[in-house]
Amino acid sequence: MDIDPLLEKYQQTLDAFDSLGGNDFESIINKKLNLANLMKHKNLMISELSGGEFKLIQVIKEMLSSPDLLIMDEPDVFLDFENLNSLKNLINSHKGTLLIITHNRFLLNNCFNKILHLENMELQEFDGRYIDYNFSLIQRKIELQELAFADTEEIKRTEVLVDKLRWAATNHSEPAKGKSLKARVKIQERLEARRIKEPFVYIKQPDIRLFADNIIEETIALKVNDYNLAFDDILLENVNFEIKSTDKVALIGPNGTGKTTLLREIFKNNHNSINFNEDIEVAYLSQLQGEMLNDSNTILEEFFEIGFKNSQEIISWISNYGFEEEVINQKIGSLSGGEKNMLQLAKISSCRANMLLLDEPTSHLDTYSQIALEKAIENYNGCILMISHDFYSMVNCMDFVLIIENKTIRKMSMKKFRKMIYAKHFDRDYLEIEQKKKAVETKIALALKDNNFMLAKILSEELESLIKLL
């Protein structure tokens, strides 16, 4: 028997094993599990993990094969903040090339050294951090708005001159005036052409608005007394809290601790431990989008079913949420996750309820829509109970936090919550610098609104110095 081919195959297998780091494979696995804070679950069955932990295991599994390019599509969706931090650690420790689609501001600000921005059917590359990319967009916006303002003034002057030349050429048949008119018209056309908005600076943002008809004075809107939740194991016991009619509250906790089930039971209001004020009307956004949207409906049919009278009324309403007229006959099942969440927001806003239950409303939304939703929440006149793992949305628009710990829920002030998160995941001065940065960005927006370009440029220098500290 000729064993040479067998020996050759054996050697090839050994070489492949070595190239994968076979001798160190268990050590490599342990390092990845440590980075993901999953070492304590090393001997568990996959079926025993939470959804967030399972997602991290999927990421680790793909990284262990050492691909030249690893592509991930929104790996952060529905991860709690601890698991999100673990994902950040895995991304930053990976030696190969990663291409990741994400709208998560925590990952965007802490993981990447190159940005590919797809907007208005164009792609723009930027070498550097996302925070630096955003700053470059602000600088470019100041520059373009100043040019546009100067162009507008010049166009006004040119229009007056064109009208005078046209009148002279028409009424006096002066050839010289006709030539001057043509020259001035060409100048005006060039000025108009320069006003074309750049796709990455002037981005159309949704105009999300959340309406409440029956606005009631500050009183208890929702009271939960001695609530318990168990499946195979006890998840929550002896839960007590109340929410006032003007409160905006975040419900947070690790994946798999019963947040969604609690919110759903509050919405259904069929539990003896859950009591609403009789004047409260509730609307619900589900992270399981099929609960509140019918995938087999078109957008048009979905809104006819909730009381809209005609297609024009629907088109006008959904246009504020980023939907163009041509998509109204599109099946909801064909929409992206972000589009479905925007459609849910459009639906619950049309209900004009004075209490909103929102389960992961920012999931799948792009950063511009997230910011638009934050503004809508701030301006909403009712009360909100929101499940979220989006630290930025919580800090920007919630009044306090209900945090699940040790199978119960306790209230935490936003100030204490911020300190807790920053102590765990950020440098000591990050919070103060981030708050100053946001304040300066607001001042720049106001300066641009007033066409005060000199002030905007001075403020951008201040902003740049703050960004260097982050």
TrEMBL record:
Transmembrane segments: none annotated. It holds the Pfam family ABC_tran. GO terms for molecular function: ATP binding; ATP hydrolysis activity. InterPro entries: AAA+_ATPase, ABC_transporter-like_ATP-bd, ABC_transporter-like_CS, ABCF, P-loop_NTPase. PROSITE patterns: ABC_TRANSPORTER_1, ABC_TRANSPORTER_2. Keywords: ATP-binding, Nucleotide-binding, Repeat. Residues 210-431 form the ABC transporter domain. This is ATP-binding cassette, subfamily F, member 3. It comes from Desulfonispora thiosulfatigenes DSM 11270.
